[in-house]
UniProtKB/TrEMBL annotation:
Region described as Disordered: spans on this chain: 1-21
SUPFAM superfamilies: Thioredoxin-like (SSF52833)
Stated family: Belongs to the thioredoxin family.
Domain (Thioredoxin): residue spans on this chain: 39-155
UniProt entry keywords in alphabetical sequence: Disulfide bond, Electron transport, Redox-active center, Transport
Keyword Flavoprotein in record: no
Pfam families per record: Thioredoxin (PF00085)
Gene Ontology MF terms: protein-disulfide reductase activity
InterPro entries: Thioredoxin (IPR005746), Thioredoxin-like_sf (IPR036249), Thioredoxin_CS (IPR017937), Thioredoxin_domain (IPR013766)
Name of this chain's protein: Thioredoxin, mitochondrial
Polar residues bias: start-end ranges: 1-10
Ribonucleoprotein in keyword set: no
Length: 155
C-alpha cells in the first residue's frame, strides 16, 4: 500500500522525489516505509482467505481441522510456474468471499508435508474438505479452470 501525505498549507500535492520514498523494509508487523525522519508509516496486509503454513501442527489446525474447504498450494520460491499460479489462485479464492480459504505450503520449508501428501512436482494444488483430499492438480491452470476447480470444491 502506498500513502502520499499532503502538507495542508500547500494548495497542491508535492512532487514525488527519489528522496521522498525510500526502500521499504520488512518488519515483523508488516511493511515499514520511512518518508522522512519525522514520519514512519506502518501498513499491514491482512488476507482473510490466504495464509502461509508455519509447521505441521499449524497445517493440522488450519487445514485438516478446517470447517471451510481449503485449497492447499504446494510451491517453492525457485519455481517459475508457482510464481504465476500463486497470485492467480489467490485472486480466484478471494472472489469466493470466504466460502473457501487457501493455505500456502513451501515444500523446501515443509518437506514432511510434501512427502505426506505425495507432492512430486510443483506447483501442486490440493482441494481439501473435512480433512480429506477431494481433488488435485499439478501445474498451471487458467482462470476458467481454476474457477471450475473451486466451484467443484465449494459444491
Amino acid at each position: 500500500a502506498s500513502v502520499i501525505s499532503r502538507n495542508p498549507s500547500q494548495g497542491r500535492w508535492p512532487p514525488l522525489t527519489s528522496r521522498a520514498l525510500q526502500t521499504p523494509q520488512c518488519s515483523p508487523g508488516g511493511l515499514t516505509v520511512t518518508l522522512n525522519p519525522a514520519r514512519t508509516i506502518y501498513t499491514t496486509r491482512i488476507s482473510l482467505t490466504t495464509f502461509n503454513i508455519q509447521d505441521g501442527p499449524d497445517f493440522q489446525d488450519r487445514v485438516v481441522n478446517s470447517e471451510t474447504p481449503v485449497v492447499v498450494d504446494f510451491h517453492a520460491q525457485w519455481c517459475g510456474p508457482c510464481k504465476i499460479l500463486g497470485p492467480r489462485l489467490e485472486k480466484m479464492v478471494a472472489k469466493q468471499h470466504g466460502k473457501v480459504v487457501m493455505a500456502k505450503v513451501d515444500i523446501d520449508d515443509h518437506t514432511d508435508l510434501a512427502i505426506e501428501y505425495e507432492v512430486s512436482a510443483v506447483p501442486t494444488v490440493l482441494a481439501m474438505k473435512n480433512g480429506d483430499v477431494v481433488d488435485k492438480f499439478v501445474g498451471i491452470k487458467d482462470e476458467d479452470q481454476l474457477e471450475a476447480f473451486l466451484k467443484k470444491l465449494i459444491g
